[in-house]
Amino acid sequence: MRLINLPANLAKRQxxxxxxxxxxxxxxxxxxxxxxxxxxxxxxxxxxxxxxxRASGTFVTEKSNxxxxxxxxxxYLAALLxxxxxLAENISSPVVWSxxxxxxxxxxxxxxxxxxxxxxEKEILxxxxxxxxxxxxxxxxxxxxxxxPKSRRDFETTGRPLYxxxxxxxxxxxxxxxxxxxxxxxxxxxxxxxxxxxxxVMEFLYTYRLWCLDIELIEEINVKExxxxxxxxxxxxxxxxxxxxxxxxxxxxxxxxxDLVHDDTKPNVLSMPKLLYTLCVDLRMTVQHFKALMVETWxxxxxxxxxxxxxxxxxKGDLASKTKDYSERFGNHRYYINIDGTVRSNLILRxxxxx
Length: 355
Description:
The protein is an alpha+beta fold. The protein has three domains: 6-131, no CATH class; 134-215, no CATH class; 250-349, no CATH class. Helix content is 37%, strand content 13%. The chain has 13 helices and nine strands. It has helices spanning 6-9, 13-21, 28-40, 46-56, 70-82, 99-107, 119-131, 134-137, 152-158, 201-214, 250-259, 272-283, 287-300; strands at 162-169, 183-188, 197-200, 218-221, 238-241, 268-271, 305-309, 337-339, 342-349. Strands 3-2-1-5-4 form a five-stranded antiparallel β-sheet, with helices on both faces. Strands 6, 7, 8 and 9 form a four-stranded antiparallel β-sheet that branches. The longest helix has 14 residues, at 201-214.
């Protein structure tokens, strides 16, 4: 389907915008690739940009390799405007690439068409997130006073862990600002206080959440086995700001591990999910960096630590397979340490006075 006369196709603009606002442009790597394609080929015409994106595989589905349909294309073009990479007055006008878009295209020459986002790319994308409506619609949910954070440092210092309570469907005939979407997700900064925020599901849980996870502005803990380790359901799905501070050293991390136990003169067993819900959240680290620090500390203090193979039958999902679809990048498999094909789900702390 070729979008030759894009303005004519937008005759029902209001209905289309309402539809797109509830759609997902959840691959921020696709936005980077779209920008890189357009600028490297000096393209401002939207039809030509669409054809380039299809030919490159940017505008095709991941599993079936089929070209995007109209609504999928539109929401990515709209995302360029939303993040101010495109400064055109509206989507009916030719693309006007912003200086930030040109910088992103320049530094992404070697990384485009991959699912990896470099540190330099993340910095640009984070800046644009703060300049966009995602700040007011998503990031403010992490701030107790509801003010928009001015920078990443501001977000890190004022933001708090946010609990995702669940999804509710709008009752028939209900309207108003609290039910601006057919489905809302309920979130809270305090799962015991009863102060709940309602957000549109598609934007909050998919678009903004995935953008911010991919650029490591936030992290997520949502382990399927949470109830088994004693984590209440209302506290089992957490989103939290990621720190910019340097991680602790293995020695400092070892001390933090022993601070979690009541008696370090006897062996203690700590489950990996439990460590994620406590220490990982407290340190504001990504899951990947937390696991890397755990392995480094284990390798340094093998006489004190043992990563134990747990009962895999109780863990949901295929954790051992190294091949995962990009859509599964935030799946349950990432919450466990995999060493040489063996999933380690428990950490044994030996007595510190043991020879």
